[in-house]
Design brief:
InterPro entries: Zn_peptidase_2. By secondary structure, this protein is mainly alpha-helical. The chain is 72% helix and 4% strand. α4 packs across α7, α5 runs antiparallel to α6 and α6 packs antiparallel against α7.
Length: 229
């Protein structure tokens, strides 16, 4: 088996990623059993947040056919889409996730720099993330430094996208918490549950970005070593 100086850190990052994924599911399930005193559903909270921020035109749609967490804000369609377990349910988990996605809609309205940059990167990243694995494999197999370098550059674009995602997600969560508390959608004793749901979700982005950065460093190390041979 081939080891590099980055093998152990990457394995540790992989373990962190698996743990983060498990934690976000466990945290969501735990707080999906706790009803907010307001009695509002994820849809109710989302609609109020959007309306208060002048986003009356932004629709909120349930994601059909699945209760899995696939909640997101679509900047192209200007639409908030919520999984059924968030859209229809009145739980701390549901209103936390709904508020977070509305945070992205507000970012879009105010042209939050990181979100704007992320959106501009998306078409390029969608292309480079698909071709990077083939370029990297081809470069390694056929010992073509030029092809390998192109693959690393293509992979770098995907890594940069993930890194830019971090402040975007944290900012959306910060906005969500401020709005939920400031507008009285949650009580003070419920804020801890909201924070745990949002922090657990954010950790998955941190783990994914960390793994990608370490893999990029490994590819660069392998590229430099191939040139030294």
């Amino acid at each position: 088996m081939f080891f590099t100086p980055w093998t152990v850190p990457i394995l540790l990052a992989f373990v962190l990623s698996m743990w983060a994924g498990s934690r976000v599911k466990g945290t969501f399930n735990k707080w999906s059993k706790v009803r907010p005193e307001s009695g509002m559903t994820g849809y109710d909270v989302a609609r109020r947040i959007l309306d208060v921020n002048g986003l009356h035109h932004v629709p909120i749609e349930p994601i059909q056919g699945s209760n899995a967490l696939g909640d997101h804000y679509d900047p192209i369609a200007k639409t908030v889409r919520l999984s059924q377990s968030v859209y229809y349910e009145s739980t701390i988990a549901a209103i936390s996730v709904a508020a977070h996605e509305c945070g992205h809609a507000i970012q879009d309205k105010v042209s939050y720099p990181m979100l704007v940059f992320r959106h501009k990167m998306f078409p390029t990243v969608r292309l480079t993330s698909n071709i990077a694995p083939f370029l990297l494999i081809g470069g390694f197999l056929f010992k073509l430094p030029g092809l390998l370098l192109i693959g690393i550059i293509a992979y770098f674009a995907a890594v940069l996208f993930q890194v830019v995602t971090l402040p975007t997600e944290y900012n959306a969560s910060s906005r969500a918490r401020d709005i939920l508390v400031g507008n009285g959608y949650i009580r003070n004793h419920e804020e801890g549950g909201v924070a745990k749901v949002l922090n657990a979700a954010a950790l998955t982005y941190v783990a994914a970005a960390l793994m990608s950065v370490l893999q990029l460093l490994e590819y660069i190390w392998m590229f430099n070593r191939s040139n030294d041979d």
